[in-house]
Write a structure and sequence with these properties.
about 45% helix, Rossmann fold, 9 helices, alpha/beta
Amino acid sequence: MRTRLNNVGGDGIRVGIEDKLANVSPGSIVILEFPAEENQIKLAAEFLKFKEKTGSYGVYVSSNRPTNNLIEKVKDYGYDLRKGLEEGRVWVVDLVSKNVGDAEVKGVIYVSSASELSATQMAIEKAINRIKDSDGHGWLLLDSIATLLVFNSPDSLLEFLHFLLGRLRVLGFDGVIFTVREGIEVKVISTIRQFCDEIVKL
């Protein structure tokens, strides 16, 4: 497992996700750790723009925001998620909208709650099967470990992640897990790191 620690270039400018992930081997599982004050929506937009450049297709598992809000927010940082959904380049697995009564969006697979890990895995499998029908290399982004820990026990989440990341390896998909560095039990984050090929710290 490799760790990439540097997040500032020689000119003092923050190194972005594209620079961090450009040299990661295809099919790798990466945990991307960032401080709590980092703008996670900006990180998500950077990631989506990077993956679009590579011509790859993927699954965004959203446990933080309803899809309509996610579409609106990432657009502020230059990524048109609605277009990505319409073109089938991105499939969103939404764990929030059903719970808060948000309107549905085409190209989104909905799960009733972030506590429904079995249903989440089934939704991810459904999205993956659609990605496999495309010509692009597949990826999956899981946007928040901290949020999933609010709704699930650490043991349940670790079991879910172990299975999910194993599936991604079998399929040769890139896997990226976003997590804040603070506020997660050391034992939990240490175990998740062991599931991954690389640790990227911003």
